[in-house]
């Protein structure tokens, strides 16, 4: 049987020394993952960023053998492999240069959910932090957001468990393969998350958690979330790294203020002081900032029309943004989607013809 394109995509992610950015470069130059492996050594060396050592590493037979093992593991575990060119790959991540080329997902959540919130914080959460986490999720329940966190001790696991209690989908972004739950004591919660939520990682099955993988994991949490809420954090730690990524990705960041002398409020208070986060005082802070109080009919219109119409990948990417808020300036749309302004104008005209958006003064667009 002829190997699938996904097989070659998986193989490309297993080449030593080839990261997410170079994978995109190779596919852009060669046309597809399968064509990368059909290329000659000479052609590969001409690809920007590829030298002799990398070119030989790509064509080494061990690479395809590793991809075969990964494919078998994913089939056995019921894990989806989502390459960045695929329709089901999270649209919120596609515009970031450092987004994972391949994701591994186990579960039933919609990774392109209309509304998403990331909730993060210290592993040594206080009763105050756990209570605030539960209150946030309970208040957001009517809006049915996808809750994203990292399955760690403290605030993370409190967010996942509160989501399950409220019947909300929740996914854990992991710094290991989906088959290695860390910490192991959260295995039962992880299993409960699979029906409505799931487990997501950029690491192939069998990869054990490692210190260097956690910051990389945090960028995925930030990129997937429309807003990040830091509930409790010390002066240094993973939650602050997630907030930094969120700021770089132009995501909304909120921090819950705490006692001045409380160690695990220092990070939140510092984010607020340095204008790197908005102060969180009530659920309405989130709801109003993300424009979640808009009439349900407008976002429902997109979903209903999507059942009857087919959209290109770029159109779907644009509509994903309009699910987050009903009005956008064309410059912001171009930046968020990384679509050239001329092509974007043509795409917006097409969506206007389909009755989904309308033009406003000042180069703005709004849901029709």
Automatic annotation (TrEMBL):
This is DNA-protecting protein DprA. Signal peptide: none annotated. Belongs to the DprA/Smf family. Residues 10-29, 42-61 form the Helix-hairpin-helix DNA-binding motif class domain. NCBIfam families: dprA. One of its GO terms (biological process) is DNA-mediated transformation. The gene is dprA. GO terms for molecular function: DNA binding. It comes from Larkinella terrae.
